[in-house]
Amino acid sequence: MISGDAIADLRHGNLKRLLFPRSIAIVGASKDPAKAGFNALNTLSGFDGDLFAINPRESEIAGVPCFPDLASLPIPVDLAILAVPAKACPAVVRAAADKGVGGVFIISGGFGETGEEGRALQDELAAICRETGIRLLGPNTSGFLNPRERCAASFVHRCGDFAPGRVAVVAQSGGVNLTVAFQLRALGEGVSLAVGIGNGADVDASDVLEQLLEDEETRAITLHLEGVTEGRRLMQTLRRVTAVKPVCAVVAGRADIGEFAQSHTGNMLGARQRTVAALRQSGVVVVDTLEELAQAASVLAAVRLAPCANPGVALITGQAGPGLLIVDGVKTLGLSVPALADDTAQKLAALLPPMTFVKNPVDTGRPSETFPAVVQAVARDPAVDLVLIWSLVEPAVLDPASALQDVPSPVVFGSAGMPDDIDAQRASLGALGLSFVTSPERLVLAARVLCADAMAQTKRGRAEADVTAGAPMVRIAGNLDESAAKALLAQYGIPVPQRRVCHTHAEAHAALEDVGAPVVVKIVAEGLVHKSDVGGVHLGVRSSADLDRALAAIDAIPAEGGRSYLVERMAAGGLELIIGGTNDPAWGPVLLVGAGGVNAEVLDDSALRIGPISCAEALEMIADLRIAPLIDGFRGSPRLDALAAAKVLVALGRLLSDHPEIAEAEINPFRLYPQGGVALDAVVIAQQSA
Amino acid sequence: MISGDAIADLRHGNLKRLLFPRSIAIVGASKDPAKAGFNALNTLSGFDGDLFAINPRESEIAGVPCFPDLASLPIPVDLAILAVPAKACPAVVRAAADKGVGGVFIISGGFGETGEEGRALQDELAAICRETGIRLLGPNTSGFLNPRERCAASFVHRCGDFAPGRVAVVAQSGGVNLTVAFQLRALGEGVSLAVGIGNGADVDASDVLEQLLEDEETRAITLHLEGVTEGRRLMQTLRRVTAVKPVCAVVAGRADIGEFAQSHTGNMLGARQRTVAALRQSGVVVVDTLEELAQAASVLAAVRLAPCANPGVALITGQAGPGLLIVDGVKTLGLSVPALADDTAQKLAALLPPMTFVKNPVDTGRPSETFPAVVQAVARDPAVDLVLIWSLVEPAVLDPASALQDVPSPVVFGSAGMPDDIDAQRASLGALGLSFVTSPERLVLAARVLCADAMAQTKRGRAEADVTAGAPMVRIAGNLDESAAKALLAQYGIPVPQRRVCHTHAEAHAALEDVGAPVVVKIVAEGLVHKSDVGGVHLGVRSSADLDRALAAIDAIPAEGGRSYLVERMAAGGLELIIGGTNDPAWGPVLLVGAGGVNAEVLDDSALRIGPISCAEALEMIADLRIAPLIDGFRGSPRLDALAAAKVLVALGRLLSDHPEIAEAEINPFRLYPQGGVALDAVVIAQQSA
Q1: Residue B562: its pLDDT value, please?
Q2: Interchain pair A416, B322: CB under 8 A
Q3: A320, A396, A418 ranked by CB distance to B175: nearest
Q4: Given pLDDT bands bounded at 50, 70 and 90, which one contains residue A1?
Q5: A188 and B CB contact within 8 Å
Q6: Which of A233, A685, B33, B488 makes the best surface tag, with the fewest CB within 10 Å?
Q7: Residue A259: predicted pLDDT
Q8: Which among A174, A175, A417 is the nearest to B182, CB-wise?
Q9: How many domains does chain B have?
Q10: Which chain B residues touch A254 with a CB distance below 8 Å?
Q11: Is there a domain that residue B482 lies in?
């Protein structure tokens, strides 16, 4: 039996062999052009390494030596491509493992995507991989491309025609993998590696990202995700990768909210939002479309800003109309377009004709021979971290490649023109390592992703919130009633109202005395969640008579398991928030803050993070809310204690981390004041298995 | 003196001559390649019609006959291009008008964009145009392109290389005009006409749109706007154009909110939002970027859906990953992706392998020879108005051009592949008049713009809200106090609380009796807007003692011009809205509804329309709000009387239309109930000139 570490090393090494193969065998290779085994061989005709065909009835196919089975091969190949029916695959994969093959890619369909029987076959393959260390890409993917090795393990048309390059593609879907590779091709970018994960029976996105971390040719990574199972592992991997090279991502599933959980919080924590939050927390730049993904990676592969909390963006253009659209877009994103220093403005005034705008954006008028000096002056301004330039192709007045030599700040150049002119500009700027885009909005996108990446990098330095388990906890046995839930929150330092659970009217009257009027009187009954709806919540109870009326009303509510009365100090008015969290199977603690009451849902005003989180991250969540201005003191109203709410989020993160047996905890509302706040209602729901 | 109608006809005809010239003269033509007068001539070397140079020192330039001045020309040319200094322009334009030239385009800068002196020159040019009927494009634009006439009136590199086509460009900015033309070129689209308006001293966007309405080659129009001055004329023109051909638009100025008006309403009615509302109300499809603009026009030029309130979108794909992103995008837009009829599903099940998804989207698995039949079945489904298809380029298994012959519903085909394959697909589909796009998100965009256009067309049939003036109105002499404002609203049928303005404490006590407790007591004092802030509003006044306390508090507020007391019936609790409007110099009445209190601003939850509007439009505005679910009855709360709020919007539109002397009218809050609603506070502000 091999040790855990040793098998991990073996698996990592075998995946490297699979993705960067020096020898390949095609199992089920065929002379029949209608067969997948013919196409696979044909696509690999340019492969530089050792290529073998496996077919018991042939000795040679299209000039490739043929062997009856994997065992007969002279060497254990790095990669075996399987063009055999699904049912035959487990035996072949086992034979491959026995031979010492690095990994396999299966062309055939008929696995997890097709139902029970296929799922069983797939599980069998996964078990062989776990046991032997051989790696399996897919099944149910169009494969992977490694143009450097001239290796296209795919059945799709012209997959062998991609040029090697600096951008990697990792996609859940084989179709998306190739679509992104084609989008990169349209931008003149080559591919370092492009992998479609498919069903992910063995190799998943984290595995491939680990390989790309080590690959020196890969300068930027594009990632496409649908669902995520091992979320925390993905986050850990991505944190290590984004420290070294930029990653941008598209996450599917915007419209489909997916699971509908018991409480509001669960409902709002859609699967996609969780993934997006996790990626952002891991330093990934999330974009919306595949074209944006390819463009973002192309820009980030050429230029990466230094870590910066609020990068300053400058625009230089000779065309005010497109310039206005660009500045508009950059400002709409909330990015900083700083005024240039007086010194810079004076330099520019000397370089440009009168009546041009020299603050920022810098309107040069039609470019002249002073253009390079203008770029230099702007790039040297202390407030400028990124220079955007827009100019139509005008060779008579501007040669971008010579104008942009030795610019001391990162530059992205944008232009529009006839296709051949554009290709020529792209080539000449690319040769200088400069980034080139072909529309005003792509300049805006470049600013967005470069700044997002630079901002994410500043957060990397932060100490990660402490996730080490503390003392063994008393486990929660089931859902908690409101008072018990509040007692648990109070243990974590979350402020809750003074209260008493009373079993009789007499106890309730005593509690009114002790707690002090005004109080709120609520029903406590097992399984009753929506207390208000049944008349189980009575506010502003001041007198004994008030209390008697409230108790009588509560007594009239049907409650099979009996009822108690919660007598609670009534809180002053304030801004209401919802603060909650769930223990997600993929991500662990997921924390949410939103506008209170129905607003979080109706107005879609919530922010979420994968927990546990630091106080700084919690404050960022609160600042992300639309209602943040109300907390900051809007139109003269008092500034509220954001820190008090942030501390609740931090505490809830610890609570969910300490108590994996809790499915969800929700405070709705948390009432926030200029000083402090209080959890007015609380729900704690246990995992169904607990 | 020519009559108004005659000069309008003359101006229209002259603009047609300018944009579709059969004869052109270049004033200031030069043999010096460094001069604009050389470039202009050079760019027109392919022009089919009569070309003349004007230069007193030459008899011929580059083979073009040269005349000393416009007067000497053998014919009055359709277009004169002026490459002479700004100061010389007025005399040349007057000479051109005397000669009977159709219109002029001025290459030189130095007009309205450069300050006082330039502005005066520009005004002089505009006056000559008004007086004589000659037309002037610009100044301060890079000109226009008419590839059909082989006419590029521009100084920009390779403007003469555009192919004639079916998409027109009308852009405020010359730079944007050319950028959009280049984006169209990248999509394989030619240009019917591309016009940069520039300073718009004479020719504006409405003028060009009028020409395009008549131009049979123009199948779709792209429009770029920055600021708009003659808004209502633009709306009228666009309504006529969009009835015949689709128009899509980009509007600049997202970030810059512009003017900050006295009331909340004014603040929220940003210039861009007004323009966007006006365009949508005129049947225009508004998009966000220039690439989207070009793509939208390319799609709309090929296919336009029949008018439809809620078009059904179907997707056919063999690649589930991109398919998921496409359906995700379409659903996120709120478009309908209907389940296919059982009949269709049965047909598809017979055509496709088992385990493929045949509801909608239709996952074909890898395309096979049944693909054309699959497309036919889906296109014939009664719920389907638009068929989207996504497939990577795979010539071995799918030839889109033959698969998409005679499809009975509109189709957009999307694909990704190597550039030469893509060009070939575009050409073969284009030859069939079919729309082709190159990414999943462009398919989503196609669905968005086709459906938006189809939905806008259904609204065209609606009777326009009545804008004819009624009986002469009593003009408002200045700002109205709250009670007077409410009295005016009440004249328009807007519900206001029962109330009395009282000048003495005794009158107030009588009013408490008459109106009936509880009442609200408010200060009325000239120029005092924020009554609450100074303690001038007292709620829940029930008794004489309560009233005395309130009156004493109001008496303590400093009010130089004296004070009165407004005693008003206190309204029950309800959902609060803000309902307001302004009389905009460009657009006339602009109406707004939003979430009440600070929410409209903080949560950016408001909707606006150019008024006056119909009740149906007002209900649409309310449905556009984020808080619409609260009005519809959220989580068991009662459904509120949206119609009551809609009627207020309609009435406010009439009021502002009747009273152009009113700058702004605002009801904040309007309190909405399950039955009816009431205007709790009202402000009416007169135009400053009034």
Answers
A1: 85
A2: no
A3: A320
A4: low
A5: no
A6: B33
A7: 34
A8: A417
A9: 4
A10: 328-329, 332
A11: no
Contact A253 B419 (CB under 8 A): no
- With CA atoms as reference, the chain B residue closest to A602 would be B627
List C-alpha distances in Å: A411 to A293, A336, A435: 19, 16, 7
Residue B418 forms contact with A (CB below 8 Å): yes
Tell me: the pLDDT tens digits for A175-207? 999 999 999 999 999 999 999 999 999 999 999
CB contact under 8 A, A174 and B321: yes
- Confirm whether B466 is domain-assigned: no
Q: What is the pLDDT of residues A611-635, one digit of tens each?
A: 999 999 999 999 999 999 999 987 7
Looking at A300, A332, A364, the residue that finishes a domain is A300
Q: Which residues contact A198 (CB under 8 A, 6 or more apart)?
A: A137, A138, A139, A140, A141, A172, A173, A174
Burial, B1: exposed, middle or buried (Cβ in 10 Å; 0-12, 13-18, 19+)?
A: exposed
What pLDDT score does A690 carry?
Answer: 42
Residue-level pLDDT at B255: 63
CATH classification of the domain holding A564: 3.30.1490.20
Q: How many CB pairs under 8 A join A and B?
A: 215
- Helix, strand, or coil here: B42? helix
Q: Which amino acid is at B266?
A: G
Last residue of a domain, one of A460, A487, A514: A460
Closest to A2 measured CA to CA, from A13, A10, A201, A125: A10
Q: Does B48 touch chain A (CB under 8 A)?
A: no
Output B508-511 pairs: Cβ under 8 A, ≥24 positions apart: B508/B547, B508/B551, B508/B565, B508/B567, B509/B544, B509/B547, B511/B567
- A629 touching B (Cβ < 8 Å): yes
For a pLDDT cut of 90, what percent of chain B falls above it?
75
Residues of the domain holding B437: 304-460
B472 lies in some domain:
no
Task: Output the domain CATH number for residue A202.
Answer: 3.40.50.261
- Does any CB of chain B come closer than 8 Å to the CB of residue A289? yes
Answer whether residue A281 shows pLDDT above 60.
yes
> If you average pLDDT over each of B268-272, B362-366, B539-543, which comes out highest?
B539-543
What pLDDT is stored for residue A262 in this prediction? 37
Q: Are A289 and A318 in the same domain?
A: no
Of A413-427, B306-320, B552-566, the poorest mean pLDDT is in: B552-566
Given this model, what pLDDT does residue B231 score? Answer: 93
Specify burial of residue A493 (Cβ count, 10 A radius: 0-12, 13-18, 19+): exposed
In the stretch 296-355 of chain B, residues with CB closer than 8 A to chain A read 318-325, 327-329, 331-332, 355
B161 touches chain A (CB under 8 A): yes
Q: Are residues A291 and A328 in the same domain?
A: no
**Selected residue with higher pLDDT from B554 and A264:** B554
A251 shares its domain with A185? yes
How many Å apart are CA B423 and CA A160, to the nearest integer? 19
Number of Cα atoms under 13 Å in the Cβ half of residue A521: 34
Half-sphere exposure of B191 (CA within 13 A, CB side): 30
B321 and A171 in contact by Cβ < 8 A?
yes
Together in a domain, A374 and A238: no
Evaluate if residue A264 carries a pLDDT over 50. Answer: no
Which residues, 6+ apart, have CB-to-CB distance to B175 below 8 Å?
A319, A320, A321, A322, A323, A392, B142, B196
Residue of A119, A389, A439 for testing the chain B interface, max B β-carbons within 10 Å: A439
Please state the pTM of the whole predicted model: 0.94
User: Is A529 in the B-facing interface, judged by CB distances under 8 Å?
Assistant: no
Question: Looking at beta carbons, which residues of chain A come within 8 Å of B626?
Answer: 602-604
Could you tell me whether strands B164-171 and A588-595 are parallel, antiparallel, or unpaired per DSSP bridges? Answer: unpaired
Nearest 5 degrees, angle CA B500-CA B502-CA B507?
A: 100
Check residue B285 and give its pLDDT. 98
Check B182 against A291: CB less than 8 A apart: no
Backbone φ and ψ for B202, nearest 5 degrees, come out as: -125, -70
